[in-house]
Specification:
single chain, 16% strand, alpha+beta, 13 helices
Length: 365
């Protein structure tokens, strides 16, 4: 049998199903990011900024949209070959399972390299640019930050608003701000807040703050201000509410910057947040290779036995990795356990997939 022709057929069939599934997964996952895009669109009337922000969401989606189509494409390919007895005919012509798997695993390796480049370089860069674009748009709109506080995404303040209209006007506002410079709370109430040009205009505003007396045996001075109307640059309030540390977080760094910071860090490797971020990226990048192997191994088994046992195993092993990956992301305070959760599923998938292929190559039902 002419192997190049067979390999072209296998790769063509594999990538056809892969691209179809990936398109569907991208569309589904993109809908999940629609809330962030809609929130950003309320801040900006610039169509180009909205388009760029939407485009920056794509690298968040692709690393998750690539692995599942890999297992589906390889499983359907070998299920079809087995069901139509094409696999039997190919093996009768002297082509072993290894030669059948080589083109698919090379294709999976190509997807792994692409996935790694997205996870390691493109994703962090787009994440940083999206954050930078959001910061720029919210610098003159504190109402957007009020929504983040209400959703629990910012923890240095508390806000309560009776009505918020169009991101430009709010009524009955209560804002409690933790001033970390002097470790004191500040309170502001307003009957109405609205944005006019670049200014935040308030009506019937009350502000309660404190002044440090700088004396050991004295109390802080309490300052209470009542104003019928006030006007202040909107950016000044936004700067108080926003955090300036987001640009240094590991998830915004390229792979080169991540390795440099890891090398310069005084912390041990296993407890270093930069090392854990590197593990996350490597784990996510390796999924196309192992998921393709998983689909091929249990896809053949489905065709031979005509049962759903192989499908069940494939679903369980894919779910094992995804649940372990989610669990590892939430275990930042237990880095060694997170490392295990990132990579142990690959070992399990590899062992069980090779075991299944070995049984099939021996003709064991």
């Amino acid at each position: 049998m002419n192997l190049p022709i067979l390999w072209r057929f296998l790769l063509k069939s594999y990538f056809q199903v892969f691209l179809l599934c990936m398109t569907s997964f991208i569309a589904a996952l993109f809908v999940m990011r629609f809330k962030d895009i809609a929130e950003f669109a309320t801040l900006s009337s610039d169509g180009m900024s909205i388009f760029l922000f939407s485009l920056y969401q794509l690298p968040h989606i692709l690393p998750l949209a690539i692995p599942i189509p890999c297992v589906i494409a390889s499983m359907l390919l070998f299920q079809k070959l087995s069901h139509h007895q094409e696999l039997t005919a190919i093996r009768a012509a002297g082509v072993g399972l290894r030669n059948l798997l080589i083109p698919l695993m090379l294709g999976a390796l190509f997807l792994t390299i692409i996935n790694f480049s997205i996870v390691a370089e493109v994703g962090p860069s787009c994440r940083f640019k999206a954050k930078e674009l959001t910061f720029k748009m919210t610098s003159n709109n504190p109402f957007y930050i009020f929504n983040k506080i209400t959703d629990g995404k910012l923890t240095n303040a508390y806000v309560e608003i009776r009505t918020l209209r169009g991101g430009k006007k709010a009524k009955d506002v209560l804002l409690i701000l933790n001033n970390r410079s002097n470790e004191r709370l500040g309170i502001m109430t307003a009957e109405e807040l609205l944005i006019e040009d670049d200014n935040l205009v308030g009506k019937n505003v009350s502000i309660v703050s404190s002044v440090n007396s700088n004396l050991d045996d004295d109390f802080d001075h309490l300052v209470i201000e009542n104003q019928d109307s006030m006007s202040t640059p909107a950016s000044s309030l936004s700067q108080l509410l926003q955090s300036a540390k987001w640009g240094m977080r590991p998830e915004y760094l390229s792979i080169k910057e991540l390795i440099i910071r890891l090398h310069l860090s005084q912390k041990s490797f296993w407890s270093n947040s930069h090392a854990l971020e590197l593990a996350r990226r490597l784990s996510l990048a390796m999924t196309p290779f192992f998921f393709t192997l998983l689909g091929a191994a249990f896809g053949m088994e489905i065709g031979r036995r005509h049962t759903r046992k192989g499908l069940l195993w494939a679903v369980l092993l894919a779910a094992l990795y995804l649940s372990s990956f989610i669990g590892a992301k939430s275990m930042k305070h237990f880095p060694k356990a997170a490392w295990l959760l990132y990579f142990i599923p690959f070992i399990i998938i590899g062992i069980l997939s090779l075991r299944s292929l070995k049984r099939i190559s021996r003709g064991i039902e």
